[in-house]
TrEMBL record:
InterPro entries: RNA_pol_sigma-70-like, RNA_pol_sigma-70_dom, RNA_pol_sigma-E_actinobac, RNA_pol_sigma70_ECF_CS, RNA_pol_sigma70_r2, RNA_pol_sigma70_r4_t2, RNA_pol_sigma_r2, RNA_pol_sigma_r3/r4-like. Gene3D superfamilies: 1.10.1740.10, Winged helix-like DNA-binding domain superfamily/Winged helix DNA-binding domain. Belongs to the sigma-70 factor family. ECF subfamily. Pfam families: Sigma70_r2, Sigma70_r4_2. This is RNA polymerase sigma factor. Keywords: DNA-binding, Sigma factor, Transcription, Transcription regulation. CDD domains: Sigma70_r4 (cd06171). Residues 99-150 form the RNA polymerase sigma factor 70 region 4 type domain. The keyword Transmembrane helix does not apply. Residues 12-76 form the RNA polymerase sigma-70 region domain. NCBIfam families: SigE-fam_strep, sigma70-ECF.
């Protein structure tokens, strides 16, 4: 089947197949999706489709199998969701983590990346250098400057902390 023949076949068969799959799935959007996917798969074998003597039947079969496969996946997903109840509640970040993230945001990006990779991701200085493309000495300097800046930012936060902690209220 040539490209022009395939285009003509598509134009004639797509509406008919979509109607048939709509009756099968009960969902017009789903029917259009699976028929379209079947035509995409048929495109790769368009030269053999004419030899099959029933290209429309081949596409209908593929589309129906795709629809059934989607139903099965959706059903398995629903079963999984029903068996796994959501957690009662998810605690938010504590004040220490919030203070650390706030302090990290105040660092220059290069220092922040070095601190995160080395201290939070447990990478060695050499691994941080490799991942960032910076020399080892530069990474050491970024870590040193970043830690010093973090200490200053966190010391300011700790000085402010007792006022709201004693009252039990933030704000």
């Amino acid at each position: 089947m040539t490209e022009d023949e395939f285009d003509a076949f598509y134009a004639a068969a797509f509406p008919r197949l979509t109607g048939q799959l709509y009756a099968f799935t009960g969902d017009l959007g789903e029917a259009q999706d699976v028929v379209q996917e079947a035509f995409v798969r048929a495109w790769d074998r368009r030269h053999r489709l004419l030899a099959d003597e029933a290209p429309e039947a081949w596409i209908r079969t593929v589309a129906m199998r795709l629809a059934v496969s989607r139903w099965r996946r959706a059903r398995r997903w629903l079963e999984l969701v029903r068996r796994t109840p959501p957690p009662e509640s998810t605690p938010g970040p504590g004040p220490d983590r919030t203070a650390l993230v706030t302090a990290l945001r105040q660092l220059p990006e290069a220092q922040r990346m070095a601190i995160v990779l080395h201290h939070l991701c447990d990478l060695s200085v050499e691994q941080v250098a490799s991942e960032t493309g910076a020399p080892v000495g530069t990474v050491k300097a970024r870590l040193s400057r970043g830690r010093a800046a973090l200490a200053r930012h966190l010391a300011v936060d700790e000085a402010e902390e007792p006022a709201w902690r004693e009252s039990g209220r933030v704000g």
